[in-house]
Amino acid sequence: MEKIKVNLKENSYDILIGNGLLENIENIIDNNSKRNFIITDKNVDALYGNYLGALKNYEKIIIEPGEQSKSMDVTADILKQMLVKGASRKSKIITFGGGVVGDLGGFCSAIYMRGIPFIQIPTTLLAQVDSSVGGKTGINLLHYKNSVGAFHQPTKVIIDTALSQTLPYRERLSGIGEIIKYGIIYDYKFFEYVVENIERIKKCDENIMPHVIKRCCEIKADIVSQDEKEGGLRKILNFGHTFGHALEGITDFSKYSHGEAVIIGMYCETIIAKKLGMIDEKYAEEILSFLSNLGMNLNISNYSIAELVDWMSKDKKNIGGKISFVLPTEKGTVKERLFEKSEILHLCSE
Ligand code: ADP
Ligand code: ZN
What domains, with CATH codes, occur in the chain? Predict the structure, then answer.
């Protein structure tokens, strides 16, 4: 088993990573206190629900899979069930599922009686490498993703790499988008490792996944512990996300998974860095050819650039009306640059 400590002073916690960890869940999670809850979705429950059966003091709340569950209605429903069943300030929540369950269940634990502890057991590759570190929880309101939420750190994260075997390829690809991002923004050696081992990563090979996931969590933990509330450094995690979020928005969050949109986003943003002369041509080619070989259609010429830029200008991370981009420069580093709308339009239409 691999273990990483996320250093956040009084909010510090451990991430445990291993193949088959859930088989011994009762040795990892304390099962003594009463009236605790597992929040999970129907698919995960059907596949793996019995893994948590040993936790007798945890009652299950099962939600519908999918982004539409990240709503005020579902939040209220979970909180009401907890109240009726007598959950106290000492109760705990386990979130057992992908990003949706983690964001929603984490949010419920952040606001129930002003905050109760929660343990995350992420079951998708994306959630394992991305949303389980950082303490962001939240739901969607109107069409605005994650527009209501709270920073609330889990007390423990348990990553069982065996669970990714049942993920469809597109779900794996979504995780791979975020995995390669860590190499580009922070660790060129890790980038090279991912490029070399991509076929095994696509298969979620149990012999290398604990290492891959560990390195991603270490990098994210390193960044987050230097900047818990997104004041500066944490922004580098947004490489690929300015374009990525715009693409998700323009396609109504239905065509691309998050990680797929980020893959296209990194592709477009690397081209922008290249046009601006911020990146060595050969290194840019390394990134671009890796992304092109993942088996995704990266062509987005059928979307209007003006509309994409409109989406970008709504982003929370923009400053003074300028659009924030995080662009690759030296190997293993990225830099934030701010652009006027017109500059981006110009760069993209060249
Ligand atoms: P993400 O983590 O990618 O944001 P979701 O929470 O929306 O995504 O999960 C994506 C889909 O995958 C959901 O339908 C969910 O029920 C399903 N799912 C989650 N974990 C697994 C797994 N280990 N194997 C198969 N399907 C899973
Ligand atoms: Zn992301």
Answer: 2-166 (3.40.50.1970), 169-349 (1.20.1090.10)
- Taking a C-beta distance cutoff of 8 angstroms, is the pair 239, 181 a contact? yes
pLDDT value of position 225: 83
Q: Which ligand is nearest to the CA of 44?
A: 1
Nearest CA to ligand 1 atom 10: 98
How many Cβ atoms sit within 10 Å of the Cβ of residue 23? 13
Residues acting as catalytic residues: 114, 136, 178, 220, 230, 234, 238, 241, 245, 258
Establish how many alpha carbons lie within 13 A of residue 222's alpha carbon, considering only the half-sphere containing its beta carbon.
Answer: 11
Beta strands in 88-211 (DSSP E): 93-97, 118-122, 136-141, 144-151, 156-160
Residue 136 structure tokens:
């962001």
Ligand 1 centroid, distance to 173 Cα (angstroms):
12
Alpha-carbon gap, residue 260 to 266, rounded angstroms: 10
Phi-psi label, residue 137: left if phi above 0, alpha if psi -120 to 50, beta otherwise: beta
Residue 70, strand partner residues:
none
Close Cβ partners of 22 (under 8 Å, ≥ 6 residues apart):
48, 51, 52, 121, 158, 160, 162, 163
Q: Which two tokens stand for residue 99?
A: 């990003």
Q: Global pTM?
A: 0.94
Q: Where are the beta strands (DSSP E) in the chain?
A: 2-6, 13-18, 36-41, 58-63, 93-97, 118-122, 136-141, 144-151, 156-160, 323-328, 334-339
Of the listed ranges 27-41, 69-83, 105-119, the one predicted with least confidence:
27-41
Site to probe by mutation for ligand 1, drawn from 21, 40, 123, 160 as the one with most ligand atoms within 8 Å of Cβ, is 123
